[in-house]
What we know:
The complex is a heterodimer. Chain A is an alpha+beta fold. Chain A is about 35% helix and about 25% strand. In chain A, helix 3 (about 95-120) crosses helix 4 and helix 6 crosses helix 7 (about 205-220). In chain B, the strands form 2 sheets. In chain B, strands 8-1-2-9-10 form a 5-stranded antiparallel β-sheet. In chain B, strands 3-4-5-6-7 form a 5-stranded antiparallel β-sheet. Residues about 245-270 of chain B have low confidence and may be disordered.
Amino acid sequence: MDDSRLPASFMTPGTSSFADFLAGHSPDLLPLRRAVPQGHAGDVAPHGTTIVAATFPGGVVMAGDRRATMGNIIAQRTFEKVFPADEYSCVGIAGSAGLSVELVRLFQTELEHYEKIEGTTLSIDGKANRLAGLIRGNLAMAMQGLAVVPLFAGYDLVSGQGRIFSYDVTGGRYEEKAFHSVGSGSLFARGSLKKLYRDDLSESDCVTALVQALYDAADDDSATGGPDLTRRIFPVVQVVTAQGGRRLADDEVAEIADSVIAGRMNRPDGPAAALT
Amino acid sequence: MSMPFYVSPEQLMKDRADFARKGIARGRSVVAVQYADGVLFASENPSQALHKVSELYDRIAFAAVGRYNEFENLRIAGVRLADMRGYAYDRRDVTGRGLANAYAQTLGTIFSSGGEKPYEVEIFVAEVGDSAAEDQIYRLTYQGQVTDEHQYAVMGGADEVVAAYLHEHYTENADLSTALHVAVAALGRGPEDNGGAPSERVIPAGDLEVAVLDRTRTQPRKFLRLMPTRLEAMLGDRGPTTAAPAESAKSAPEPEIDPSDIPADSDPPTPG
């Protein structure tokens, strides 16, 4: 008689978390709870690579290159790895491409679900902790080459500033100051940002610094895609300020990328920082 | 030894329906009005925290009257169902019809099951499309009946008086401000006093809960609450306002039914 009504799990009060609800009702929909056969799965699934983020007075910017690789093969030239998480935050994920896209969808749904059920949004620390909770279950898959390593950034409406959080494969959550990068080209990108970053950058200068950093990452890391001039493929850039988040239009990024490339025509290693 | 009375199935269902109807009529009305850019919901609800109208998904909203704990339960179930469908398939695959059907099955099963008391709720599930012709308002009753409403719909409280006002004053393809004025004026209508004309009242903007599904919003999520400051600006000067009478204020929105108010003869017969 009760076959046709919504199952009891739908009507049970208590959790405002979509992931917790799924874990009880249909755990097979969760991306990170799957049993993977022994062996190294990393070589057969595409990987997304470098994500960079930096704060500026009034907000935060996140950018990611467009390449996904599978061993020595370029699996995707137009892959997107930076996404809005909700109105005031964005998330970029390096690592196993398929899992990271699924994880982003779960995280987006998780934030929206909380907002609808509770009638209010999570604090930025709450969002950062939820993301840590979601990737905590991924350690076993990370050991088999399917790691997902997110970078989370958002505008804190309480303290009125942009904030950046990084993660490790065990779900450890660390708040970063000023700038950070993750993925295979992250070492080169971070080195670049160290020399370029200043804490009084304007929004567009901050975007330029990140595009420079991605260029440097692509320069030295084969898995990071540089600006593709013939196909006009440029990084995905998300800006989050007190007015909310927006993705920069392709032609805005193209303009900045073109000026970066024009500069590199004269000095291929990029702008020179002062020695002292 | 007391003899168990025989209760005919017709009488049993009628008693259950009467019980649910009484609970629903105790609350204040909620109106849904179609306007040029979407659907507007309005209700008199002094609480800013306990909502009668809320978002289910991108283009779908939920409104309810009756017992708060029961419709809140249904709302959460709807959010879970919508989010799960949108996550498992795609955002476009979550439809108002699907949600209305799930609610209808659930309410219908609860109504006809012997072990549970029927839910004392009535629900609107509304969805906006790309044009006004594609907008949909589904009305779900306590026994799981679904009806497709057009132009405007009213449930709960003095629904007949409010609907009569809307019938007279509703215009198709009105702008938001016109639709809001009509909806709020309709909510101010009370039941007739001793067979006279319906009473009229100007509801303070702070006591109104108004939300729209606005297809012109650029975000994928079309649901928007209109806050009291914006309502005041839109409604303009409407003359002196009168808050809701105190006696019914205590019943809204949470405990809409006091068990001691139910005449003993309307209690649902216990099974067996």
